[in-house]
Amino acid sequence: MAKIFCVANQKGGVGKTTTTVNLAAGLAKIGQRVLLVDLDPQGNATMGSGVDKRALAHTVYDVLLGECSVADAAVSAEAAGYQVLGANRELAGAEVELVELKQREKRLKAALALVDPHYDFVLIDCPPSLSLLTLNGLCAAHGVVVPMQCEYFALEGLTDLVNTIKQVHANLNPDLQIIGLLRVMFDPRITLQAQVSAQLKEHFGDKVFDSVIPRNVRLAEAPSYGLPGVVFDANARGSRAFVEFAREMVQRVQRM
Ligand code: ADP
Ligand code: MG
């Protein structure tokens, strides 16, 4: 059975997409069968996997509206090593169209159930909002991976997300849990980051992943080559950290 994870944080620019594509590539590298679902109309995870969002015959939009299946819409990101259910600007309209539909929060869940046996992991890149799209991600998932930068407002920013996850857990998806907080773009030389990191450990204990993703320019450069950092430069510090993180995820899943 596939384990399904949302990568979510309602803030933009915190590293959600970088985490999704590199975790997907890291898991693929260690032999896992992975489907990446792009739920952000910006389509950055699609492009960052080497899939041209403008050339897609079908996207996650068609899947959410019930116009095609995941199997029909998913494409192979050859170089990255996993499959992609892509997104483009069209998806921005889904928010409005979904409101009218039955089971509007559970459409992705229903669609993914049909491809479950084909994957070990499904990773969902969420948009920077707590919208109906994100809600579809949260309803489909077993767990949420929360990437965060160790900055001053990091803990406050988490409150809304944690409350949303609690509500979804109580009302829509009893399976849902925060699988872990991932420290990203980390620079241990910055005292504040080390302090916030320690605070996170204090508050959230073993919900904080052991793996830490350093700030690393190779990870930022990779998308312009249409590749996850893990594939673009396997030896970069950031890439190695993501492969470590993939191993940690596999271990956590075994304990779920
Ligand atoms: P989000 O999806 O949350 O909006 P992104 O993953 O797109 O965030 O990251 C925002 C920016 O930060 C991007 O330009 C990305 O390349 C850069 N970035 C993300 N993680 C790292 C990292 N570990 N080191 C350096 N740059 C990073
Ligand atoms: Mg993003």
TrEMBL record:
<dbReference type="InterPro" id="IPR025669">
    <property type="entry name" value="AAA_dom"/>
</dbReference>
<protein>
    <submittedName>
        <fullName>Chromosome partitioning protein</fullName>
    </submittedName>
</protein>
<dbReference type="InterPro" id="IPR027417">
    <property type="entry name" value="P-loop_NTPase"/>
</dbReference>
<feature type="domain" description="AAA">
    <location>
        <begin position="3"/>
        <end position="178"/>
    </location>
</feature>
<dbReference type="Pfam" id="PF13614">
    <property type="entry name" value="AAA_31"/>
</dbReference>
<feature type="coiled-coil region">
    <location>
        <begin position="84"/>
        <end position="111"/>
    </location>
</feature>
<dbReference type="InterPro" id="IPR050678">
    <property type="entry name" value="DNA_Partitioning_ATPase"/>
</dbReference>
<keyword id="KW-0175">Coiled coil</keyword>
